[in-house]
Amino acid sequence: MKVKAIQIKKTGAPSVMKWVTVDVPAPKAGEVTVRHTAIGFNFIDCTHRAGRYPLDMPTGIGSEAAGVIEKVGRGVKGLKVGQRVVYIGKVGTYSEAQNVPAGICIPIPRDITDEQAAATHLKGMTVEMLVERVHKTKKGDIVMMHSAAGGVGLMLCQWAKSRGAMVIGTASSASKCKAIKAAGAKYAIDTSKKDVVKEVMKITKKRGVDVIYDPVGKDTWEISLACLASRGLLASFGGASGPIPPVNLNDMSFMARAPFIVRASLFNYAADPEDRRKSARRVFAMIRSKKIKLKINQRYPLKDAVKLHRDVESRKTTGISMLVP
């Protein structure tokens, strides 16, 4: 079966992504062929394209999609032709269709749309991991989310607020701060105008925050450490600005506050199929209950993936972006 897809032969700027025709063979044993109806964008797509997380070349790109099963390989149980599914874990979602291991496919409930599923599968399970398992967020917690105007950030603001936490978000513009507060953050700090550490200490009366969720990495590492309360938790779950610097656990300022540091990875928290199914069910339940309200702010035709990546890297986007096959 011939389909159109985005592929790269080398890493680099968005322009390395090319719109090509590829062949999708019959699914092997244990696989299904999924024709995509909605493709989620995640920052890890830019990371793969830039080469910070290397892939074997040439390669497809993209990590999250929803669609309809068109073919079922030998030995597959519990899935059938015509069934709607969503998945992460198979690079190559920037395509009209691809073969996918059956074990990573999650059936989409009738009351959840394909766009809702594709917009929240990776991002939603990331938030579920952070708020429910990395730290069991509870009433009275003070939590901070860096780059909170992105898809994960806006969802985390809503989820953490629903658990009774007070949320502080950071973003790079006034308009993004407005979006953060609309999503449930009590405070939004404009990093283009304000000193984050001073603002946090003012908000918390010099106490600091209980938990910091940080997808940025290098550029926010020292800021995050300075904002933590005594024995607070810093959950690093990405490196958009680059890897964090080496950590000296014997540094006196570090020892004085005895912080907890964790590198939270969905690849670990969703490695077990049952964990993945439970996490997905929690995400669907949050959407169903309207505790998480989804807004897809940007939709791009699949063939325009280059423009999407350029817009993301120039900080023109907010919230959830999606590719439409």
Describe this protein's structure:
It is a single chain. The protein is of the alpha/beta class and 325 residues long. It has two domains: 2-108 and 295-324, Quinone Oxidoreductase, Chain A, domain 1 (Alpha-Beta Complex), CATH 3.90.180; 124-267, 3-Layer(aba) Sandwich (Rossmann fold), CATH 3.40.50.720. It is built from ten helices and 16 strands. Helix 2 packs across helix 3 (151-162), helix 2 (114-134) packs across helix 9 and helix 5 (196-203) runs parallel beside helix 6 (221-227). The two termini are 16 Å apart.
Distance between the termini: 16 Å
The domain tally reads 2
Q: Classify the secondary structure makeup into a structural class.
A: alpha/beta
CATH architecture of the largest domain: 3-Layer(aba) Sandwich
Strand content is 25-35%
Shape: globular
What count of helical segments does DSSP give? 10
Low-confidence stretches: none
Taking the sheet with the most strands, its summary is:
7 strands, mixed
CATH H-level homologous superfamily name of the largest domain: NAD(P)-binding Rossmann-like Domain
CATH class of the largest domain: Alpha Beta
Number of strands: 16
Secondary-structure element order, as H and E?
Answer: EEEHEEEEEHEHEHEHEHEHEHHEHE
Mean pLDDT: 93
Radius of gyration: 20 Å
Summarize the structure.
With 325 residues, the chain is α/β, with parallel strands linked by helices. It has 10 helices and 16 strands.
